[in-house]
Structure formats: C-alpha cells, structure tokens
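INTERNAL AUDIT FORM
Audit reference: QA-55
Scope: verify that the stored structure record matches its stored sequence.
Auditor: D.O.
Record contents follow.
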Amino acid sequence: MHDHYKHANTHWNLKDRLYFDIIDYCKKGKMWENAIARCKELVDHHENVTLNYQEIAKYMRMMAEQYESILTQIRPEPEYFRVAYYGKGFPSFLQNQVFVYRGKEYERLSDFIARIQNQWPSAQLMSRLSPPEPEICDSTGQYLQINHVDPIYVEKPKFAGKQINEQILRYYKVNEVQKFTFSRPVKKGEGEEKNEFASLWTEKTVLVTAYPLPGILQWFPVTSTSSHEVTPLENAIETMETTNGKLKQLIKQHTHDMNQPVNPLSMMLNGIVDAAVMGGIRNYEEAFFTEDYLETHADDADRVHRLKDLIALQIPLLEAGIEIHEAKITDNMMPLHQKMETCFDELRHHVEQNYGKKPRMGKFRHYKTLPMRLKKISAGSLASLDNLSDTSSLSHLGSMTEMSAAIGKSPGTILGGNVFVKSGTPGKNSTSKSPNKKGGTMSAPNKKSRESISSLVNTRRDSQVREAFLFVLYPMNCKSCEILAFFRLGDFFLRLFTT
C-alpha cells in the first residue's frame, strides 16, 4: 500500500484520500466535469456528516478552479473508431464482434490503424465498409475492418431551452456518449454522370455501445446496429449543416483566443469560397433547384427551401471568418487572402441575389483594420501616417519635445499617469518614474495643460485620425506612436474634465 494511504485510520479517511487522488487524475486528464462531481460528493458528506467547514472550503476552491478551467482552457476533442474483428482466428471474445474505441489524444485514423495492426500483425485490413461475406466470418483467418465514427450528441435535460456556453457544450458533444454514426456511399440506379451530387446516396449506420465512453475502459462492444439510406438532397443538407457548424466553431475559437493558429481557418475558408466559384453550391443548384427536379420530387419542397436557407446562412459566417483571417495573416499570405476575398465577393453577390441576405454575426471591424494600421505605424516615421490622416494636419506640431516646451511641461507631465514616455529632462511636478522606461515621468495635468490639449484635439476631428486613436493602446515603439498617444490621451482628458 502507498504511504499516502497507510495513515488512513478509518474507512472514510481512506475514501477521502482515494477521492482526492481521483480528482487529481481527472484534472491531469482535463476531465474537469468528473472532478467537479467528485468534489460535490465530498462537500455533501462534510456538510451533513462531519460538519468540517475547513474541508468544505478546500473542495469549494478546487471546484472553482475546475469551473474556470472549463471556460478558459482549450482541450483537444477525442476521435472515436469502429473496429470489427471478423474470422475465427481471433480469441473467442473478439470473433465476429464490433467495438468502438476512444482514440488517444491527437490520435488520427492512420495512427490508430497502425496501433491495432501492431497488436494483430497477422490480421488482414479490409478496404471496404460493406458487411463481410459468410466465408470471411467462418474462416480461420483474421480480418480487421476499421473506420472513423462520429459521436451523436444527446441534449441533457438540464440544458433544454437554455443558452449554454459553447465551451460547456463541447465536452458533452464528445464525452459521455453512447451512440455513434458513420456513412458510406451506395450505388442506386444508373445515376447522372454530369452531377454526382444528384446521385450521391449514402447508407448511414448508427451504433450503440454497452456503456458510455469514456469509461473504465477505452473501448466497449457494440450492442445494437441500425442502418438507413440517405437521399442525395438529405446528404447535401447534412453536409451544409456540418460545414456551417465547423466554420462557426472556428470563428468562436479565434474570437475567444487570438493566439489560435490561422492555418485551419485558411484551409476551411479557401475550401468553401474557392470551391463555390469552381463548382461548390452550383452543383447543388444544378441538381436540386431546377424545375425538373421540383416537378419529379414534389415532396422535397421543404428540404429544398432548407438547403437554400443554409446556403444563405453561410455568407455571414464566411464574412466574419475572412475579416478575422485578414487580421492574423502575414505578408506572404496576402495573395491567398486577396484571392479568397475575390471569390467571396462573387459568391456573396450570387447568393444574396438568389437566396436573400442574412444578418451579420457581429462586428469584426477591429480585426480587419488593426493590422494595417499597426504595419503603417511601426515604420517609425511621420510619412507612415499618410493613410491614417492628412500629414499636413500633423506637420506643424513638431516633436513631443517641441509641444511640451510650448506649454512649459515635459512630455511625461503632459501625458499624465497612464502613458510613460522617454524624456530628457523630467518635469518639476513629476512624482514617480516609469516602470517600463528609464527617465520617464508622470503627474496629473494642470489646467493650462488641459486647455492646450483641448485646443489641439478640437482642431483635429478628422474621422480617420480619431479611428487611429483606438489602436494606440497596443504596444508600439516609434516617434509617430508618441504623437498618436498624445492625441488619444488628450481626447480622454477632454471627455473626463468636460463631463
């Protein structure tokens, strides 16, 4: 027995220490929801049995950390795989049985297949997902059928009719799941060679496991299987819903965390808008939006309307994604971005003209304008401000030292206690040094300073200059930035002392 448990004198002491270790392992595995459930059990015991408020406080603090982690930390979504063992060459408990496995962190299908084949080096991997022939099931060989499956999210009763944070839902969409699905294409009829979407029938299979995953094991046997065919139109609707959902999720991730890598967003945006110009939704239009199709499939009128609505809903998502993409790309990705914008403009015009205009997701203008402003400002010269405002309106101001001399104060004194600048001679009224730059000073502006700042700001109401004020708070190191900082804080003090 571990030393951690040797000093447990009672059954409850042993259980308490075991629970503490369980919570710690759940935290390491980023299963914070399970850790919270164990904490609640301990809190309930201490509230009603031991009345140990110190222990209650300890576990309450742990619960607070778990709740915070759920909302702020990003955790990888696991992959699930179906493995069918056909043939009597396997052990008896595996023969002709189907299981669902939960993959390891960041494990993809190719890696998982390699791992299973290492366990059964003599097994033959089947290339098709169709049911095996009786000869294979009765043979003495080993045959493996492996494919990716998607978990089916079942809404929790406590979530019904409520607006739930996406970070909370993400856990339940891929955890505590017992149903899984996968699809395979099927041939039905002669089909149409000109447009494969019109003849793309699929067979959708739903698997139910013996227990929810993850559990005490990383794999469980499948207890029931059901299959049904999906029409080409239903398949198109499902594809559009999946694409829109993935794009919306990417936008939320980048909005929540600007440090997210931009490559997945680039690939998805380019795949949608470029495919739309080269084919994309036009294939759906040729397959399902023609008069001939509507006449021969009168029962599909509602589904056709649903597909058109999903196409229209994709435009605001693409618009938001492209604006965020522009804010995060580097110069070498600008040609790709410009191509995407051109394709998107064509797509938006076509969709809004035929299927209506949907409202924007939100305002992402600050994502779009910030990078270009920062690139121009970081050049370190007044000439770089040409695209922000009229240079002539700034040229007569001179440097920060000249402006400070005009009103008899040092730059640090003028800017006050919120911005620190490098100054050769500290002002008389300076009270403390800058923590960021040596020689910096700060103090509250006097009446004369406020009047001078007001006069400067009142003569420069150009909309582009005022727009540039919004970006001064970002870290910049150049003389031009000091001037913009002066205007930004001047506007701030003006509003502060005139209200």
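Auditor finding: record pair retrieved intact. The chain is about 50% helix and 15% strand.
Action required: none
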